[in-house]
Amino acid sequence: MANTNQLQTNDLTDTQIDILTQLALGETIKRIAYLHGTKRRTISKQICEAREILGVKTRDQAIAVFVTQYGIPGKESK
After folding, report:
1. pLDDT higher than 60, residue 77
2. pLDDT per residue as tens digits for the range 11-48
3. Hey, how many other C-beta atoms are within 10 angstroms of the C-beta on 56?
4. What does each C-alpha distance from 23 to 8, 61, 66, 69, 75 come to in angstroms?
5. Which of 31, 43, 47, 75 has the largest CB neighbor count within 10 A?
6. How far is it, in rounded angstroms, from Cα 78 to Cα 72?
7. CA atoms of 41 and 74, how far apart (whole Å)
C-alpha cells in the first residue's frame, strides 16, 4: 500500500478524484453512479482502487486522506 506521505497529484485518476470529491461533499454512491452514467459497482471499484492508492482500509478513511492531501477541488479555504 502507498505511503500517504508520498502522494502526488497524479497518483489518483481524474475519475477517482471526482468520485472522492463528490463523496466528500455528501453524495451517495448511487447518485455518483447516476451522474457518471455507470453502475454503482463501477463506482465502488474506483473507490476500492483509490483506497489502495491512498493506503487506507475504509471509504471514510479515503475521503479523510483525500481531503487532507488534496482539499476539495472547487472549494476555497477560508
Report:
1. no
2. 899 999 999 999 999 999 999 999 999 999 999 999 99
3. 19
4. 20, 12, 10, 15, 14
5. 43
6. 12
7. 26
